[in-house]
Structures are given as C-alpha cells and as structure tokens.
Amino acid sequence: MRAVVFDLDGTLIDSLPDIASSVNVSLARRGFAPLPARDIERMIGDGAKVLLTKAFAARGSEMTEADLEEFVAYYTIHAADETAPYPGIPETLAALRAAGHKLGVCTNKPEVAAREVLSLLNLEAYFDVITGGDATPFRKPDPRHLAATIAALGGGPAVMIGDHHNDIAAAAGCNIPAIFAAWGYGAAECPYIARHPNELPGIIKEMN
C-alpha cells in the first residue's frame, strides 16, 4: 500500500493568517511597518528562516538569529489562532487511513511548531510520521528530507502531496509521483493535480 506524505502549510492547513501575523510581530519589534498578507503568502514554503529573511529584506533590512528565535517562539504559541484545516482534509485523512495507507507529514516548518498546530487542530493522530524542517540536515526541495520521511514510514511506494514547487521537486528527486494541491499557496508543474482534498483518494488509487 502506497504511503502518502503531505506538505503542511497550504496543503493540510490554511495557516497564512497566523504566519502573516507572526511575521508582522517580528517586523514591529524592529520598528518596521507590517507587510500585506498577500506578500507574505508568496514567501511561504522554504521554512521559517527563509520566510523571515525575505520579510526583512522587503523592509530593507536583514534578519538576525534573535529575530528567528523570537518568531518561532511566538508562532508556536499562536499557530492555531486563526489557522484551520482546508475543507475536506479531516475526512480525506480518515478515508486514506481506512483504506490502509500510512500517512506522513514532510514540512519545512520547524517540527515543534508543526506538531503543535497539528495537535491543536486534532490532526496529529492521523499521521504515523511528522518530519519538520529542522529534523534532518536537509529541507525540501532536497529529496533527502522527503526520503527520511518515507524511510520512517517503512519505505516502499509513496506519493508526495503539496502546493509548492519544492514538494514536486523533492518527489522527483525520490523518484516517486507527486500530486499538486491546487487549493494552496503555490504553483508548480505536475502531471497529477487535485482541485479539492476529496479528490486525493481516487487519484492515489489510480496509481496503485
């Protein structure tokens, strides 16, 4: 049975409101004006460090390690203030589990924050493995990040589901198929496209 690995932000959960709020808290601490959420949306996908680097660069400044530590601490506490699963995600996860798939998460978000938000949204129990961006020396699009998640799931056939080109590239590097989550934040070229989470079980079934 094919293991199913999900990206987190923009795939399982709509986390933009809380990410944007946390970024703007970090900017405000340094005296900078907030960024529009639509601008921050385009910065999501490469992990907290890259996100903050881009945000401070947009204000003509540089992120410090203290900024990063404060951001992660603040976001972890506020990760589910306004964040919610995309419609159909809980039902889809339940259906995939019932069909016998092992489920994993491979995200560039720090693992503590990823686990916290999944727990708060009652999604954590669906997953056999959760691999954060700081859990290995590698992050997507490096395929070794995804490979570590698949190995932890027991190896064998797998599929990656995500809304970002990093997800599609990591899957290609692992020589496994990917499904582009068209409801998310990013854009990518991919043979398999899901417009709604409830399409995923059918697409995955056709792969087997």
Task: Write a structural description.
The longest helix has 14 residues, at 16-29. The chain folds into two domains: 3-14 and 84-207, Rossmann fold, CATH 3.40.50; 16-78, Putative phosphatase, domain 2 (DNA polymerase, domain 1), CATH 1.10.150.240. Helix content is 44%, strand content 13%. The mean pLDDT is 96. Helix 1 packs across helix 4, helix 4 (65-78) packs parallel to helix 6 (111-120) and helix 7 crosses helix 8 (165-173). The protein starts with a strand and ends with a helix. By secondary structure, it is α/β, with parallel strands linked by helices.
Write the layout of secondary structure elements.
Layout: E1 3-6, E2 13-14, H1 16-29, H2 37-41, H3 48-58, H4 65-78, E3 84-85, H5 89-98, E4 103-106, H6 111-120, E5 129-131, H7 143-152, E6 158-162, H8 165-173, E7 178-181, E8 192-194, H9 200-207
Parallel strand pairs: 1-4, 1-6, 4-5, 6-7, 7-8
Antiparallel strand pairs: 2-3
Helix pairs in contact: 1-4, 4-6, 7-8
